[in-house]
From TrEMBL, chains A, B, C, D:
One of its GO terms (cellular component) is mitochondrion. It holds the Pfam family NAD_binding_2. Residues 24-181 form the 6-phosphogluconate dehydrogenase NADP-binding domain. Keywords: Branched-chain amino acid catabolism, NAD, Oxidoreductase. Belongs to the HIBADH-related family. 3-hydroxyisobutyrate dehydrogenase subfamily. Its EC number is 1.1.1.31. This is 3-hydroxyisobutyrate dehydrogenase. GO terms for biological process: L-valine catabolic process. PANTHER family: 3-HYDROXYISOBUTYRATE DEHYDROGENASE, MITOCHONDRIAL (PTHR22981:SF7), 3-HYDROXYISOBUTYRATE DEHYDROGENASE-RELATED (PTHR22981).
């Protein structure tokens, strides 16, 4: 009885504590990722105003305050979070006519969680600073599952003080916050991580497909690779061969997960950045072309680990 | 006093026990790897006859019985271990005139630890069977350090009974023995693992070099990658950027480790095998070409993680 | 005597005819290409006002009217030709503050001969139209030699009437004018041609280097290829192996010609365009990476056919 | 009347002349190519004994003397021509039990027109020399059409005297004979030519597909490329875009021509040769992988210029 009483007290206290730390947050972009992130903010007791260009989406978040314009969603808010499909749209929403910047309060922080070109983040930051606001680029990893479970990782670029201010809010949607360096470095970190992923996954699929052709058991190969120098997140946590791991896209018809066009998008960002700064990225470029070809051959809805299936081909034994 | 006495007794007992399990072993090929493997067999109390085509090498293994011919080293031995540079030499030493096969005892086991084409292993196996012997392909991973420390991993192909018989001997030179399947599958497993490694390392180097160009701290990137989906043995255990990890080739001028031509050799084996069986291996093929170009541009003595330095280039900021 | 008289008359007549057809032309960008193109326009009797951001360059064209500002060079001119290093600079010079557009006469034609992103041409065209002017993208092929000799080829995008108007002027600097289609299509045509060139040259160099390694005479190979299915401009007119053709860069230490960074620039434009429209360009992407690596390994001043030397390597037999 | 008489006389004379130059020829391998080549030899008046492992094929050549064994076809012949699918089969037919060599007359010439590894040609040559015969490697270009029309090109490796002896016979099946150098160099020449072709075709297809995506007319692009630096046999004679040239596979549903698996075979030979001699062939390797992927995606029956269609993809606009 006493324990139960204390538990109830504790729960109340926790709720109060959350409220005290909760802030008025504006959330723009309620797609697959954004809607789940916004819901987590509401669950943690924050007051959350939401906006999306699609009117129906605005009313889809229970407990949120739906807004009909960027003006309405931005005004009076300290923290504005954006989660949008690409850099062009981020620029349009923030810097465009009747965009976020026109209504931004002095000292408010704009946190962009979209995955975009780092140069684009640098451009938006400059405009936000001129307006008297602050900007962080904060792309995430963890996918839809992580967005739902509130276990995202944030890779953040911007000045340290601003990062510290916003960190508690980010941790209500995720588990880890990496401060990578100045503006844009969050995007650079994400794109560098994802290019390794995109390349490593194809390498792993090539090995698994070669093993299949030569009659080596793929479970055995996975066991050996995971204890050897070929081990990676792709072989250990996200194995591309159906039936080796449960609960991964490969064991579920390559449904869900991180779709081929999204991987192609991220590699395209890395490829362009490399082009602009003169860095050679031979395997990144080759990997991008493979995901590109997959998009044109019926894999545009599948998880990127379906490279395995693409290599196998239709008429392959 | 009593403890010391017991310790001495224990040591004696251990030595006796090792002798009892020790066998008469023949070791052929006393290069960088073979010499260290043979020494570990001697340390564990085995009687080891040794041979190498280079006469001086024959006398370089303390405690071994140097032999002057293949006949001498093979005759009367139950287990013959070969550790040779490539498939052509393995065939020459085993199937050639006055080769191992001509002197092989009925029932003796030939264990080839060289890294060679799996088809080559299949060919040698066939000949050994005809002669009344047994064959295992048992390539290793772990490199020179693992050979010296006796911590190698063996990937073994062949029939289960033979594997079981030889396993204790292999474990005197290593820590793990994987039985991969029928003859040749040890080679297939190794080549599949190494192609992932060769590809993943280049992907990791591309990310690290891109980060450098764009001003992202490489230690920070490594920290993020190792907690994310880009994590691999290459980023975590063998990071290619100087100064991130101690005791890896990159922090030691890319000296030691696994030299570029050896990686090119292994990827060449994988590429040929893929060619022969009709498997598409786009990134393996691209990676092979990069290591090949490195060989022609002054990296032939360096560890394969020097891809990082190759991408950086000479006139790069 | 009579013939000589008639010849003189003819020359006079020709000169008069040229004058009548000559127009007041403005030329902006007096680098390696632009300076030679401007000189040809002067030779043909046109009145040419010239401008370059580098003051010394403005006075380097004999017979031209040097201008000190974009305003001065543009005002009162019917045809403004630009020949600039890249798309960013084209936008700056045309659309920037105190740029070409601010001073453009109604109905004047802006002809951009620079090699830039086709999207950039589309953007500039739109702005020029708004201002009441006309725009053509007209990148050239033929290089410095062609610019000097007046034998350039122009690939032109824009409306037919405008092309017809400007064609005589272009033919004073070149030999051929291709009207490719609407605005931007000149750039698309050039980039498509050059990506074939960049890829084909590397393929040709790989064959020539392989032949060298295997002891096949390269002149013999060239003879066979040029009579077979491997024939291309790269093998026939611009052979990359020293000593096969006279008067090509390969026979002159890879000096002159089309430098590696220029080829890398053009392939980069093609790669970006492909990225943006979702076209797979696997060999273009791979070729770009090779020229990129060459830039980092001491080939940044050499003609792009030096791929042959890059493949050969330093320590190659 | 007189003219007709003379024509008849001339025809008779020509026929007599051919007979005098005709020899007893043995032809082994009566597939798509071989059957047509043998028929041309018969048309020119030679006595031709023929053999194929498939009994029906032996009787399919009108005017030939069908043989039931290698012994029968080889015995008493001065010139033995082989046209076989690959190097393994060439070795089997020539060096195997009851093979060509066992029955070869002293001084007879074995001319292998198959496309095989140059090392394989070197091996067979050695065996033939030991037996007292002579060997030429003489792969052809021109395809099935050229075989039928008697317009093949022969690339020949071997000693000059032997080449001179056999040249008239080869010219009865083709139009050109290139003496490339010592044994194997015919194969090297062919493989070098075909690797350029395989690479150039893909580059051309990438440009054509990119043009399509960006709305540039492909006929216009072809016209420009063929007058510029991107010109090649692939763009001019064998354009991969349907409807640009008549009578090429692309305008006939990619039927006929040189099938994808044959191109993959030739590039595989080049890739292996490069591997063995340490030459870097980055685009050859990448091209091989593309043709390989095509084989696994439903293009195994199509002409290799269908790369265009593969790049386009199924769900491409």
């Amino acid at each position: 009885m006493l324990i139960q009483k204390n538990m109830r007290l504790l729960a109340k206290f926790e709720s109060l504590f959350q409220k005290r730390n909760a802030s008025k947050i504006s959330f723009i972009g309620l797609g697959q990722m954004g809607s789940k992130m916004a819901r987590n903010l509401i669950k943690k007791g924050n007051t959350v105003k939401v906006f999306d260009v699609i009117p129906e989406a605005r009313n889809s978040i229970e407990g949120a305050q739906p807004c009909d314009s960027l003006q309405q969603v931005v005004e009076g808010c300290d923290v504005i979070i954006t989660m949008l499909p690409n850099g062009r749209i981020v620029k349009e929403i923030t810097l465009g006519q009747r965009g976020v910047l026109e209504h931004l309060e002095k000292g408010a922080v704009l946190v962009d969680c979209s995955t975009i070109e780092h140069q684009c983040a640098v451009d938006v930051n400059e405009a936000v600073l001129k307006r008297g606001g602050k900007f962080l680029d904060a792309p995430v990893s963890g996918g839809i599952t992580g967005a739902e479970a509130g276990t995202l990782t944030f890779m953040v670029g911007g000045d340290e003080t601003t990062v510290k201010t916003v960190e508690p809010t980010l941790l209500q949607m995720g588990q880890k916050v990496y401060h990578c360096g100045q503006t844009g470095s969050g995007q650079i970190a994400k794109m560098c991580n994802n290019l390794i992923l995109g390349v490593t996954m194809i390498g792993t699929c090539e090995a698994m497909n070669l093993a299949r052709k030569l009659g080596l058991d793929q479970k055995k190969l996975t066991e050996i690779v995971n204890a050897s120098t070929g081990k990676s997140w792709s072989s250990e946590i996200y194995n591309p061969v159906p039936g080796i791991l449960p609960n991964v896209p490969s064991s579920n018809g390559y449904k869900g997960g991180f779709a081929v066009p999204l991987m192609a998008k991220d590699l395209g960002i890395a490829d362009s950045a490399a082009l602009a700064c003169g860095a050679a990225v031979p395997l990144t470029a080759a990997a991008l072309q493979i995901y590109r070809m997959m998009q044109n051959h019926g894999f545009e809805q599948k998880d990127f680990s379906s490279v395995y299936e693409f290599l196998k081909g239709k008429n392959s034994k």
